[in-house]
Amino acid sequence: MNGNGGAAPQSANQTAQPLHQIKQALDIVYNAHSSNEDRKQAGAFLENAKNEKEAPFHGYKLASDLALEAQVRHFGLLLIEQGIRYFWSDYSEDESKVVREWVLNLAQGVRTSDPAFVRNKIAQLWVEVAKRSWASDWFDMDELLVKLWDNAIQEPNPAQRDLILFMLETLVDDIFNREDPIAGLRNAVLSKACFDVFTPASVFAKYYPHRTETSVSRCGEEGWLVRLVRLLNEALDAGVNSPEANACCQRVLTVLKACMGWSIPRAVAAAGVVEMVGRSLMVESTSIQMLATDCLSALYTRTYFDEEEFEQLVGPMYQTQTLQLLQNIFNWKPINPHDIDDERYLFLKRFSELIATLGSFLEEKGEELPSSVDAPAFLSLTYLIASHESFAVSISALNMLSRALRSDYWGNSPAIQPFIPQLLELSTARLIRYESMIDESHDPCVVYLNEDLDTVPERHAFLGNYRRFCSSIVEYIARKRPFDVFAYIMNNVDAILDSLYDSQPPFSFDGYKKNSLAYLRLDAKFSVIEAALKGYMRWCEGLAAQQDPTPEQQQLEHNMEVWCTTVLSRKFEDPMIKRRVIQLMVTFSTTALDKNHDFMLKILEHILLTRPPEYQSNPAYSEAHKELMNICTTEIQRLAMKMPDNLMHVYGQLESKIKEIVATENVDERYKIAFHTFLFTITHRTRNLDPQVRMARLEEYIMPIKQAWSEPTLTSALQTFQGFCNVIGLDSVQEYLISRQVLPIRMTKAFIAVSTEKLKPGSTAYQVTCNLWHDAIPMILPNLLKFLSHAHGFHNPQNWQGLSPGLRPVIKKILTDRFWQAGISTGSRDEFYENVNKTKSTMEGLASSIRGAIRMVRESCYSILWCMSRLDIHFYGLVELPGPLAMSLFADAHALSSHQMSILLNMTRYIIDDCPVAYREHFLTPLLVSLFSQVDHKVSGEWNELIERGQIAQGGEEQLAEEMKEESILRQLTYTAVLIVAGLLDPQRPKDGEGNMPQNPQLSQLSNQGEQSQHVQSTEITMRDFILSSDKIIEPLILFCTHALRMRDSRCCGIIIRVFRSIVPEFVQANRADIREFICREVLMAAVDSLHEDYFVDVQKDLAQLIATICLLYSPFSPTPRGLLLSLPGITEFKVDQCFKRLHASTSTRHQRALFLELLDGLRGIPMSEKGRLPRASKQRAAAEKEKRILQQQQSQKYAEERQKSPDLGGVADMFS
After folding, report:
1. pLDDT tens column, 989-1037
2. Which among 1140, 1173, 1175 is positioned nearest to 1158, based on CA atoms?
3. Compositional bias (Polar residues) spans (predicted)?
4. What global pTM score does this model have?
C-alpha cells in the first residue's frame, strides 16, 4: 500500500528498515540532549516520510505496535492521516478498504492505558474515513460502532466507550456544525445517514411511514439518541462524585449538545433527552450543569417547533415544579464578588441566557400557551435573575422582561402586573453610569464589571445596552401608568436632591472632579425621568383623538411644572449638575409641557442668566464650565427649533437681552455667533411672520457672510499656500497667539447649519433656505474650496517651501494630532484632557493651537459643504463645481492622518448619497474617481507600512501601545472606506450606524440626519448600476477592493467579499472582458492569498465562496482561473479539472466552497480545521495582543513576498494604475 494509491509487496527487511529510521528520527526529535542541527535534520526526514509511497502502511505498523512509545505510535497515526486526507481519491476500492480495516483494527484495540492524544487521533482517523466513504461504499459503519459500544460496556472498557463518543461528536460537528470541506462535499448523504442512525425506529414508523429507505444499514431499533440517554442515566445513577461517572456525564452531554441543533424534535422527545438533561442540570456539579445548560440552549434556540413538539419539549420547562427546581439551581451556590468562582459564574451567565431563550417562547405563543404554563412562577424566576448584582448575568433576563412588557399580550397580562413596581425600582437603581465610577469601588456591580470587561469600549457598549433595557422598562411602565409613575419618580429624585452630598465631601473648587458620585446619582435619576417622559408622550399619542386633556392629565402636567420650578430654584455649584438640570428642563419644555409658554420662557431666562464662576486653577472644573456654556447655547437652539412661534412673540425682548449680554459681558466669539443663530432660527422657522419681513431679517444675518467671502483681499491671499498661512495667522506665531484673525468660516458654518437642520424638502422653511442661500453659495464656494485645499495641503511636506530639511521633522511633529484612544491609551479620557490643559503654556500647547487652527478650517469646510449639499440643485446644479470640488477634497488627501481622512470620507459619503439622479454622471464621476484613487493610495500604503514596521519593531510596552493606537485608527479608516463601497455596490448594504463608524464632534450632526433620496424613482437607474456602467469609476474602485482583500481586517475583508460576489456576475458579458480578466487574475489570487493566511481564518469560507463564484462564472470565458490554480504548488491538472467539473454540476453554495476548500487545503499543509480561531484571552493585555499580531505577520510574510512575483498584467494592469 502506498500513499499515491499504488501497492508494492515488501519483504520483512524492506519494511523494518524505514520503520527503524523513523523510530530513530523520533528519538532524536524528542531527546532533550539532541543538538539543534540533528533535531532539524530528523524533523525534515519525518516530514518527507509522510509523503513516501508506503507512509500509511508504515504508520499502521507503528500505531499498532503496543510496545512502542506513545509518541511513536501517534506519529504512525499521522502517517495514516496524511494518506487519508491527501491521497484518498487516488486509492482504488481495495486500497481504501485496506486503510479502513487498519483504522477499524486500531479502534478495536484501544485500551484505557493509551494516552488521550493517541485515542483521539484514532477517533479522528475513523471520522476522516467516514466523511469520505460512509453511505457510499461503507454501509455497515453503524453496526461496527454498536458492536464496539456493546463490547465497551460489557468488558467494561471506558476508553473504547469514550472513543466512540468522541467519534460521534466529531462526525456530527463536521457534518452539521462546522464548515468542513470534506463533509460539505457529501453533506446531503452524510446528514441523511446521521438521521437514520440517531433517530429511534419507532419515530420513523409513527411519523414518517412513507419515508424512502436508504442504503445505510442501521443496527438495532434504538438509535444513538436512546443509547446516549441510557448511558447518561447510568452515569447519573452512579453519582457525579465518582470521577469516572462525572467524566462520562460530561462526554455524553457534549455529544447530545452537538445533536440538538439538527435532530428530529420528535426523536429528541421519544428518547427522553430533555428529561435526562434536566436531571443532569440538578446535580451538584457545576461542570455538568454547564454542559446540560448548553445542551438545552442548543435545543431551544431552534427556529420552529410545532404544537405537539412544543408541548413535549418546551412545555415541561414552564411547570411549577420545574420552575421551582430551576430557581433552586440558580440559588444553589451564591457567588462572592470579591472571590469569584469562575466556573460557577460562567454557569450563571449561561443559565440566564437559557431562561431568556425560554422567555422568547412566551412572547411568541402569547395567549396560545397551554394552561399548564405557570407564567407567574416563570416571571418570578426571570426577575430573580435580572436582579443579580452581575450585569452579565442580569442582562439576558432584563432584555427578556423589557420585550415582554412591550408585547401586546404580556404587557397587559395579569401575570406580569405584580412585578411592575419591582421592575421600576430595579431599572431606576441601575441607570447609573457605572463606566464613570472608579475601578477601586467596592460596589459589587462595579467589581463584576471589572471582572467581565477589560476595555473601555467594551464597557461603554455593554452598559449602553443595559441602560437601554432599563430605560425601555421605565418608558413602558410610564406609558401604562403615567400618574403613578411620575409621582414615584419625582419623589425619588427629591430625596436624592435633599441628600446629594450625604456621605460625600461638600463641593469645593480645588477638589472638584467631573464625574463625582453626586453627579452620577443625579444623572441616573434624571435619565429615569427622561425615559418616563418618552412613555408619557406615547400615552398622550393614544389620546390624540381627544381635543381637550383630561383633568388627571392637567393635574399631572401642573405637578410637573411645579416640580421643575422647584428644581430650577435649587442652587447647584457643580457645572455638570447645572448642565444636567438645564438639559432635563428643556426636555420637559419640548415634550410634556410644550404648550406651556410661560414655563418655556422661565427656562430660557434661566439659561441666558446662567453664568457660573470660573476657576482656572482646576482644569477639571474649567472643562466642566466650558461644557456647561456649550450646553446652554445648544439648548436654546433646541428651544428655537421646537417652539419658534412662541418665541416670536417675545422676539424683541430676546434680541434686546442678547445685545445686552454681548455688550456688557466678556462673551467669546463663538457664543456671540450662537446667540445670533438662535435669533436667526426663530425668524427662519416661525409661521407668525410676513414672508417679506422674514426674508429681510434673514438677509441681514447673511449679508456680512457674503461680503466676507467676496472680499478681494481674501481671494488674493488664498491664491497661494503662503497666503493661506498669512490669512489664518500662521506666518507670525506670536501675533497669531495674541489675536487670531476672525474668519468667515465659523459664522458661515453656524448659520448654514441652523438653516438646513431637520428640514423637510418642500416645506416653507426649506424654500426659504433655498432662496436665502441661492446667491450666496456661488459666492462662498471659490474661496471655501481654496481654504479646504490649503488646509489639506498643509499636511503635505511638498508644500513646505523654503523650509530646511532639518526643520521638516519638527513640522511633522507639530502636525501630529494628540488623541485619546479608548482601550489603548493609558488613563481615562478625562485624565487625557487634563494633561492637554496642563500643556497650554508649553511648546506642545503652541503646537496644539496650530493644529487646532488647521483642524477648524478643514472640518468647518466639510460641514459647510455637507449643508450646501442638502439644498439640492442649488449646489449640485453648479456646472463648474465637480472638478474643483474633487481637487480640493482629494488632491492632498493622502497626506492627512488616518483619523482625519475618516472624517473626510464620512462627509463625502453624504454628498454622494444626496446627489440627484439627473446630476450623477456630471457631478459624481470626478468625485468618485478621485475618492477611490486616493483611498487606495492612502489605505493600502498605510497597511503596507504597518506590516513592514511590525516585522522590525522592537520596542517596549509604550511603543507597542502607540502602534496599536495607529492600527486601531487605520482599521476605522478602512472600515469607513469599505462601507462606502458597500453602500454604493452591495445589494445588502450595511445600514448606517451598524459598525460604530468614527465620527468627529464637528460633524456629529451628520450622523443624525437621514439619507435623502427624494429624486430617485423606482424606474430610474440605481447608484449601483451607474457606477458599474462607468469604467472611469469602477477601475479605481475595483483596484481598492482587490487590495482590501489582503488588508489585515477580517471585518472589512468580509464586506469586500460580499461586494465582489455581488458584482462578479455583472462582468460576464463579453464587452467587459478587460475587467473580467483582471478579476480572474488579481482578485482571484488575492482571495487565494488570504485564504491561506492564518489571520483570515474567520472569513475562509467566504473567501472560498468568492473563489468558487469567479471560477464558476468566468471559467467558460477565460482560461485564466484554471491556469492560475495550476500555478499553485501541489495543485495537479487532474484535481483542478475534477473540481471544475463538479463545480459546474453543483447547485449548493456550501458544496461549491467545499470544493475549493478541499482543492486548496494542502497548499501550505495546514488545513482549515487545524488553523482554528485566533485565541482571545479575557484578560490579555493590549501589548501582548500586538506582539502576537507581529509574530503572525512575520510567519506569513515569506509567502506574501512570493505572491508579489505575480504574472504581468500588461495593458490590463495599466488600465487600473
Report:
1. 444 333 333 333 333 332 233 333 333 333 468 899 899 999 999 999 9
2. 1140
3. 997-1011
4. 0.82
Could you tell me if 108 and 98 are in contact, meaning their C-beta atoms sit under 8 angstroms apart? no
**Averaged over 22-50, what is the pLDDT?**
88
CB contact at 8 A, 504 and 526: no
The DSSP annotation for 1105-1165 comes to HHHHHHHHHHTTT-SHHHHHHHTSTT--HHHHHHHHHHHHH---HHHHHHHHHHHTTTSSS
Domain boundary assignment for the chain: 17-131, 134-302, 1049-1167
Q: Please, how many CA atoms are within 13 Å of residue 1168, restricted to the half-sphere of its CB?
A: 26
CA-based nearest residue to 1057, from 982, 960, 991:
982
Q: Which three cell numbers stand for residue 464?
A: 449602553
Cell 503646537 found at: 847
Query: How far is C-alpha 506 from the geometric centre of its chain's CA atoms?
Result: 42
* pLDDT value of residue 807: 62
Taking only Cα atoms into account, the Rg of the chain, rounded to an integer number of angstroms, comes to 35
pLDDT of 819 higher than 70: no
- H or E element in which residue 963 lies: helix 957-985
Lowest mean pLDDT among 240-249, 494-503, 1058-1067, 1103-1112: 494-503
pLDDT digits (tens, 9 = 90+) for 109-126: 999 999 999 999 999 999
Tell me the β-bridge partners of 134: 138
Which of helix, strand or coil describes residue 956? coil
Place 1212 in a pLDDT band, splitting at 50, 70 and 90.
very low
* E-assigned strand segments in 768-829: none
Measured at the alpha carbon of residue 83, what is the angle toward residues 77 and 84, in degrees to the nearest 5?
Answer: 85
* Phi, psi values for residue 1030, rounded to 5°: -105, 110
* pLDDT at position 1207 over 60: no
| pLDDT value for 1197 | 39
CA of residue 302 relative to chain centroid, distance: 24
In whole angstroms, what is the distance from residue 404 CA to residue 950 CA?
50
Question: What whole-number distance in Å separates Cα of residue 328 and Cα of residue 311?
Answer: 24
**Closest by alpha carbon to 745, among 787, 684, 713?**
787
pLDDT tens across 610-622, in order?
988 888 888 889 8
Question: Among residues 375, 460, 451, which one has the least CA distance to residue 410?
Answer: 375
In tens, the pLDDT along 1146-1183 reads 888 989 999 998 888 866 434 334 443 333 333 333 33
Residues 885-907 as b/e (b if ≥16 CB within 10 A, e otherwise) read bbebbbbbbbbbbbbbbbbbbbb
Mean pLDDT of the chain: 85
The dihedral through the CA atoms of 786, 790, 792, 797 has a sign that is positive
Predicted confidence (pLDDT) at residue 208 exceeds the cutoff of 60? yes
Complete DSSP assignment for 559-621: HHHHHHHHHHHS----HHHHHHHHHHHHHHHHTTTTT-HHHHHHHHHHHHT--PPP-TT-HHH
Burial class of residue 473, CB neighbours in 10 A (0-12, 13-18, 19+): buried
> Per the omega criterion (within 30 degrees of 0), is the bond before 156 cis?
yes
What is residue 1177's predicted lDDT score, i.e. its pLDDT? 35
Angle in degrees, CA 1121, 1118, 1074, rounded to 5: 100
The answer to whether the Cα torsion of 999, 1002, 1004, 1005 is positive or negative is negative
Task: Assess contact for 521 and 500: CB atoms under 8 A.
Answer: yes
CA 165 – CA 163 distance, rounded (Å): 5
Q: Distance (Å, rounded) from C-alpha 535 to C-alpha 635?
A: 22
Q: How far apart are CA 920 and CA 914, in angstroms?
A: 10
The phi-psi region of residue 70 (left if phi > 0; otherwise alpha if psi is between -120 and 50; otherwise beta) is alpha
Rounded to 5°, the CA angle 154-158-162 comes to 120
